[in-house]
């Protein structure tokens, strides 16, 4: 089997492009599982009678599925909205985390291949923005921060942070709306905000995230190739 040399030149074609392909499969699998779970609920929910010993007139019927009953829960909402949202939120955390990690690795590769004086750890900040700052300042490549694609990446990161730190709420701890997330939701049919100011991720958002990162990675790759030539 041919071993591909791990270089900046090969970063996109032989590494990031296949990684994105795998993540697309992960997103497809997530949506397939969500659809399967909803179908399973709708086809297998059961009506049962809750009996009160000695008081038959107090008996009543409920719908039951997976140990939950309709006298306590809105089952349709739980299985067709709440659980799917949890699955998609978890998937977004995974996808964004993978890309953040890969950009950190790219910085380390640039430090080594370009024989730089400073490493990523010498750069202030955290997460993806720190990596992009390092690439711009130390590696000295164009990181396309004026593009709409980069602005969308920042909104996705803010959404990810809201899921982690604020239970997916679109308001901060002081009760102020997070403008970037509100704007992001208004621009996409695959995002909405419920009556509790919480994000609701719909089918299509995972692929939107992947398409956005893929576009940005292609821009970064063009800058890296230009520097290498």
3D structure, described in words:
The chain is mostly helical and 229 residues long. It has six helices and five strands. The strands form two sheets. A three-stranded antiparallel β-sheet has the order 1-2-3, with no helix packed on it. The longest helix has 39 residues, at 75-113. The two termini are 28 Å apart.
Question: Summed up, what is this model?
Answer:
By secondary structure, the protein is mostly helical.
Lay out the secondary structure.
Layout: H1 11-44, E1 46-50, E2 60-65, E3 68-69, H2 75-113, H3 127-139, H4 148-166, H5 179-187, E4 191-193, E5 199-201, H6 205-228
Antiparallel strand pairs: 1-2, 2-3, 4-5
Helix pairs in contact: 1-2, 1-6, 2-3, 2-4, 2-6, 4-6
Oligomer: single chain
* Structural category: mainly alpha
- Average pLDDT works out at 93
Q: What global shape is seen?
A: elongated
Tally of helical runs: 6
Strand content: 5-15%
Unreliable stretches covering 5 or more consecutive residues: none
Helix/strand order: HEEEHHHHEEH
Main beta sheet: 3 strands, antiparallel
N-to-C terminal Cα separation, in Å? 28 Å
Radius of gyration: 23 Å
Strand count: 5
Q: Strand order of the main beta sheet, please? A: 1-2-3
What proportion of the residues is helical, as a percent range?
55-70%
